[in-house]
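User: structure tokens for this one?
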Amino acid sequence: MFQLQPQSAESHYYQWMALLIVTIISGGASLYAYTQITKIDPPVFLDITRPYPKTIFIDSPKINRVISSPITIAGRAKTSPAGVLTIVIQDNQENILQKSTIGNMYNSQLLPFSVKLPYSKPATTSGLIKIFESISDGEQTGQTAIPIMFSN
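Assistant:
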């Protein structure tokens, strides 16, 4: 028969230390394997606050489309009672190629708009179309912008 031999306190200490080390190593290996299998990205917290809902949407042209002059810009928008919708076409050097005001689009619903605008020759091959609400005190709100490419 098997008989247990009395063990010293030092022997118990080494056994518990060995068990602790094996547990830590296997737990770390398991966690690493789990993250590799599931490909979990680290948590990212974005604090995006918008004081008001988005009120300007550009439907045409689409993002990164090649455009030529004149360009037809279409979308949906609503403004405050004192605001007017402004469209700016600019190149990547922030040269304003065209700036136009559509007018007041005050309504409880989004109103469709479409405008055909010629623009000056750009200094770069890419740029932006920006649409925003201009309020009488010079404030610009609700800006929406899309990148574009120029054909000429």
